[in-house]
Specification:
The chain is an alpha+beta fold and 611 residues long. The protein has five domains: 63 residues, Chemotaxis Receptor Methyltransferase Cher, domain 1, CATH 1.10.155; 190 residues, Rossmann fold, CATH 3.40.50.150; 109 residues, PAS domain (Beta-Lactamase, 2-Layer Sandwich), CATH 3.30.450.20; 49 residues, no CATH class; 101 residues, Beta-Lactamase. 45% of the residues lie in helices and 21% in strands. The protein contains 19 helices and 20 strands. Strands 6-2-1-7-8-10-9 form a seven-stranded mixed beta sheet. A five-stranded antiparallel beta sheet has the order 12-11-15-14-13. α5 packs across α6.
Length: 611
């Protein structure tokens, strides 16, 4: 866990855990503090205590804080040389150990808006063909940011997000046009499944052939990284591949993994015995939840359960199916709320209809034993099925059907017995080798400890620099967006000014616009023709100081009246035009108003009086 010296930061994290259900305790305190301080500057909070008070008063601020802490900086084929190696070496290795009908399972952890998951899908399509990809591949893209997951499910990307990482050939093959952007092909997108997953709190996805988690672990503390790596080791198949980011060489410090390619941070599972599956973090002591919180906890617990569960009401309607059940049996949103008898699930992998009727009638739980189930394109599973009555008000109102995956238990039991026999045989051979190694190990231990300390410091510094680089890139993208918006506003303003200038130029009447200090702001072409002065000569000059054939002194009083907001009658004055001829000029003086209220100046309209 993070060692937090600041009591205010510790209280803030406790508040987020208690009231918002998100535990940041595994994240690096320095990174957390930088991201929180960015939000404090935005809301003008002086310290962490004041910012916590602001969070309590403004619940919508949590969304902004959450998005600020989880920096979603990603792109298609990020670090191209790494992906070139993956296409040339990793994909052929992954497929070489598979039969023609074997499923391929991929987990993209910290997938953000899906660019990385779709990059993997593109490489697999190119390596195995689109038909095999659709029937055999499942890419599980997970993140804790719901907004990013929603964007990934839609799979719509702008040209800036696609170029130059996606070549023209790949663009035409894998993306369809959608307005001004592109969308990943729907038939291939069905194999990419997006879901909410917290690496510190939720159990890992199992039986994975390729696990991609790039530039995500660097945000966590060393203890949290070890816990997550243990989960990754549990998730991977024996020949599975782990793909980390360029700032993360964490697996090289763990005996759970061996480097397949140090330069690109690609690893395989080592032969070292797997550790016990790491327990999830203990829930912190907290206040008794309110009834609304309990309902949310019940729902979240049901969704997060590792056992597939269904809830069927007394009328035989499927009312609930948790995440595990929906993934296992391919249930979509349209199938929830339908009668169970109309679904294939009612008789495969086991006959449920008669069992549900029996439980509804007797009110006692019924265990149906084990059944074999083979999801589309996946390996066969052995499921233990149990039907349990639900009595929310004392009477049986429905049933819960649970499918417990006991496949791994069977395999582990067999592996345990085989491994035990092999260990007994190898023990005597190892004993003599251990004695020889102990002497050498003592000599190397002191040197190794010094190198390990230096290596940890270098990796920590590298991870911190990479985190700061991600933050700078995020800020740069925000500035680019603001710059584009300012450019659009400038173009609009230029267009409006040109339009206004064309109107003033097209008027036959002379138009003069004065500000409240009677200084000339506008002087159109008709006015130039009357008095012989160009717009550049009078711009900003006091109107009553102009030396023209117009008796401006006689207009002082009408202009002051207009500035006061009073109505002013037209004036007819004897004037001398630019040719030196005496003319009579009708002058209309009107107030120039802003928003219909405030007087910002006056407008003078000048026309020759035909009388």
């Amino acid at each position: 866990m993070t060692e937090i010296d600041d009591p205010q930061l510790e209280r803030l994290l406790e508040y987020l855990r208690e009231h918002r259900g998100f535990d940041f305790s595994g994240y690096k305190s320095s990174t957390l503090l930088r991201r929180i301080q960015k939000r404090m500057q935005e809301v003008d909070a002086k310290d962490l205590g004041e910012y916590q008070a602001y969070l309590e008063a403004s619940p919508e601020e949590f969304t902004h804080l959450f998005n600020t802490i989880l920096i979603n900086v990603t792109s298609f084929f990020r670090d191209p040389e790494t992906w070139d190696y993956a296409a040339a070496e990793v994909m052929p290795r992954l497929l070489a150990g598979k039969g023609p009908n074997d499923a391929v399972r991929v987990w993209s952890a910290g997938a953000a808006a899906g660019q990385e998951a779709y990059s993997i899908a593109i490489l697999l399509c190119e390596a195995m063909g689109e038909n095999d990809f659709r029937s055999r591949v499942k890419v599980y893209a997970t993140d804790v940011d719901e907004d990013a997951l929603t964007q990934g499910r839609h799979a719509v990307y702008t040209p800036d997000e696609l170029k130059p990482a996606i070549s023209d050939e790949r663009l035409e093959r894998f993306f369809e046009r959608s307005g001004e952007g592109r969308v990943f092909r729907a038939d291939l997108r069905r194999s990419v499944i997006f879901g909410h997953h917290d690496l510190m709190r939720h159990p890992p996805i199992s039986r994975v052939d390729l696990l991609v988690c790039r530039n995500t672990l660097m945000y966590f503390t060393t203890d949290a990284q070890r816990r997550i790596l243990a989960s990754f080791h549990f998730a991977l198949n024996p020949n599975g591949v782990l793909f980390l980011g360029k700032a993360e060489a964490i697996a090289s410090r763990s005996e759970l993994f061996e480097a397949l390619e140090h330069r690109w941070h690609i690893f395989t599972k080592s032969d070292h015995p797997a550790p016990p599956r790491p327990p999830l973090p203990a829930a912190p002591t907290r206040h008794q939840p309110e009834p609304g919180d309990r309902e949310l906890l019940h729902r979240s617990g049901f969704e997060a359960a590792p056992v597939a569960q269904l809830v069927v009401d007394g009328h035989g309607v499927l009312v609930l199916a948790n995440t595990r059940a929906r993934v296992m049996f391919g249930l979509g949103a349209g199938q929830i709320g339908r009668p169970l008898k109309d679904l294939e699930l009612s008789y495969r992998p086991v006959e449920l209809r008669s069992a549900i009727d029996e439980v509804m009638a007797n009110g006692t739980a019924l265990r149906l034993g084990e059944a074999e189930w083979r999801p589309a394109g996946d390996e066969s599973l052995h499921l233990s099925v149990e039907v349990t009555p639900l009595r929310p008000a004392g009477t049986v109102a429905g049933v819960s059907v649970s499918f417990t995956d006991v496949t791994r238990f069977r395999l582990l039991q067999f592996d345990f017995e085989r491994t035990q026999r092999e260990l007994e045989t190898a023990y005597e051979e190892l004993q003599s080798t251990v004695e020889e190694l102990e002497t050498t190990n003592e000599e190397l231990q002191s040197t190794n400890e010094e190198l390990e300390t230096t290596n940890e410091e270098l990796h920590s510094s590298n991870e911190e620099l990479e985190t700061m680089n991600q933050e700078l890139q995020s800020a740069n993208e925000e500035l680019e967006t603001t710059n584009r918006e300012l450019g659009q506003r400038t173009d609009q303003l230029d267009h409006a000014n040109a339009f206004l200038r064309s109107i003033l130029t097209s008027l036959d009447s002379g138009v003069v616009v004065l500000d409240r200090e009677m200084r000339v702001q506008e002087w159109n072409r008709a006015t130039e023709d009357l008095w012989g002065l160009r717009d550049g000569e009078v711009q900003g000059e006091h109107f009553l100081n102009l030396d023209v054939g117009l008796p401006v002194e006689q207009l002082r009083q009408p202009i002051k009246a207009a500035l006061a907001g009073d109505a002013v009658e037209d004036s007819v004055l004897d004037c001398v035009n630019r040719r030196g001829r005496t003319v009579r000029c009708r002058i209309n003086v009107s107030p120039l108003r802003s928003n219909g209220e405030d007087v910002k100046g006056v407008i003078l309209l000048m026309d020759l009086d035909p009388g």
